[in-house]
């Protein structure tokens, strides 16, 4: 074996066994250097980027800042951002090097951030702080914001804790988070905690209550038509999350929780429960409904807390409707998230056991991967067609099951940026088992390791949104200080 191949294997081993992002990145950088990818990042010229125009816009931003021309800088930013957004979001920019894409992309984003901060922090003649705040809020509304979506996946979904911890440690965890089934439990745990409690949640995972799955006796399974004890699942949810409304959760965490639930009636549409659409609904009941896998747990009637004559007792919400696992009809509620929260970039953490075998790693290329994608696409289309034909001609007894199968087959399971649980067949026996402490640590580490290669892309493609947020926060404080000074 040649020295370069041996070194490559050693570096790949270091990356696979890394216990922190810093250790992973150090090995990845050496591997990129060995493969010549660092040189690729430095090279000028690429079919993926309009380099000449990008550099012209960078020069124009620098010139406006040097001249103190804030209005001219706004015009340059407006043109530059919308001219280059599409190409900067191209996933092909992030499949060559492990450590990131062309340095030109970082240089351009540096200039955009410097320019936004310049407009935020420098006086503009005839423009008050309040007017500037409105200007930034309007621009942010047009630009949009990122959202994190956590799929279902039973015990595999524990890996979402590792995904979110890796993002949180790098200060990349979005404020808008959605979850289905097990993803709803993790999303709920994050979006019901303030920053101090969230830090403890991520740094001391041993405190997590792990007992969620309890099988019923065979006689009860036959009688009740579901396999697991829903009361024990609710105890698990409340032990880790508590019981509060969506509105209360947002007030505590500052984050927007979204939980996807599916209807039991075929004529009803899936619902995305959030502080905007259902503020009084209790988070624990929504999560319980989102975990109600048909045949495993029974359907759920949502609960809500209405302040009425000083009482805070929970009452049924839409009492005539019952809801099941959000993964059935809307594992990733992409369109509803976009409409409700103006989402411009979706980060998907995918752990569904029936999905992960067919997902290819973003760095994998070649004829074999292309053939896998083609076969998967063909199988998907044939299954969807067969289910569509069968459900229309089936008996009413089995039609709901076929409707659910068709919905699971035809929905989208990926987003703009995808992080996925690796396909490891030997872990499938753990799918419906309570994890040991060792299993918990293993799933979290798998989530972190799956996230680290995606961090450069996530950091770049959410950077402008994060700059908007930072500028708006500073402008709010400036406005508050100005008002306090005038009183």
TrEMBL record:
Q: Which UniProt keywords apply?
A: Hydrolase, Lipid degradation, Lipid metabolism
Q: Where is the PNPLA domain?
A: 148-338
Transcription among keywords? no
Pfam families per UniProt:
DUF3336, Patatin
Signal peptide residue numbers: none
SUPFAM superfamilies under this entry?
Answer: FabD/lysophospholipase-like (SSF52151)
GO BP field: lipid catabolic process
The yes or no answer to whether the keyword Kinase is present is no
> What is annotated as the active site?
181, 325
Q: What is this protein called?
A: Phospholipase
Annotated source species: Marinobacter salinus
